[in-house]
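Shipment paperwork, digital attachment
Item: protein structure file
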Amino acid sequence: MKRQPDLKLLSTFLAVVDRGSMAEAAAALGYVPSAVSQHIAALERDMGVELIVRRPGSRLILTAAGRSLARAAETLFEATARFQDAADGIANRDIAELRVGAYPSAMSHLLPDVLAALRPRVRGARIRLVIVETHEGLPRVTSGDLDVLIAYRYLPEDPPAPSDDWTVTPLGHEPLLLVAGPRPDGRRWELADCLGMEWTSGHARSPDRRLLRRWAGELGISPEVTLETEDLHSMLAMIGAGLAVGLIPATLLRGASDRPRDERVEQVALPPEAAPLHREILAVSRPGARPPVVDELITRLTDALATARVPS
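Attachment content:
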């Protein structure tokens, strides 16, 4: 017996099973009856067993082997049809799952509204989310572990730089706001009020700390960072408790949709010579054609950043 029966012979066999006669199967397939009979005989030779009992003047009868083969052939052709549908979808850049990595504050304050709006438009594609910082996510894009990485860049020389390993799509800029805890006397904070206070930022080589150091140098000030953390939510909690001053991304204070202002902190008024600060938000993917769902995600993230309101 052949290890794999001829699919053309199996197709003829199923047509005979469905219609109950060689003649009707031949008419349905566009064959002459003798060709159908030859196909069945060839299949029986390949299988080494009788499949159909032929009795002149009566409908064909399947043997036990024929019934088993018919069930197996139906399963095979159904699986083949599903495979073909999947292959066609892949050729059309449809996908079953999209793995998206994003830095923590994007996951909590930027992506929820975007994904909620995107979900009804995504047909059959499941989006799997992974919280990952930019420097940790870039190798996972290269390896294929992530399909898209929502990344940030505080300084132009920071990664992700242009590379053959990935495609970088700018999504927009997120303002960075200098904030402090509520002022007891109700007056607005000025930068001069904060110079003698403790500051919070990332560790000495982190992107936000290097941006703070560069910005402070341009203003001729020397903020003392005594509370170091990479967790922006921890920074915000310490600032809100009156323990420090720090730069916080605007989406943590008001999200991409019109969320209430975070009442724990107040924005510090900066002098006219202070350049506005921001971090660049990027989408990183592998080179080549992208599935439509990726383009839709990128478009919605771009719109969300463009319409985000800065607290006043």
